[in-house]
Amino acid sequence: MKNFFVKLTKMLCVAVLGLLGFSACSDDPESASVAYGVRVLKYCYKGIVTDEDGNPIKGINVVMKGRFDSKESSLTISTDDNGEFKSGILVFSKDNVSEVEFVDVDGEANGGEFKSSTLKNDDMTSKDTHKEENYDLEYSATVKLKRK
Fold first, then answer.
1. What pLDDT, in 10s, does the model give residues 23-33?
2. Are 100 and 128 within 8 A, CB to CB?
3. What is the pTM of this model?
């Protein structure tokens, strides 16, 4: 009878520990802080795009170039009616965006044709937002585009 309770106790311990191990795993990248033993950070890119007079420009493509999913790639978002842009939360094990390009793709529809501009991460303002936001590091910029 004693052997039965010892075996039952061992099986219950194995089952509970196994369940605890699986509960620590998550498919949600936004909740990740450690992936495969590597610390990951959550990034956000935001800012405003204006013309030389300070007027906001809508419809400017903001192209973040870098390594996404272990390959060279890019992620594109557009400025809104106020000239503002904000990426979703990007999760990386290190700073993977190498540059951010601002491209006018709709010509005269947004009030003029504008020259493209490119910024590196070092050209943008970085802020540690760990305590106040749902991401760790925020890059922001105010970009003034020149007319063609």
1. 555 544 444 45
2. no
3. 0.69
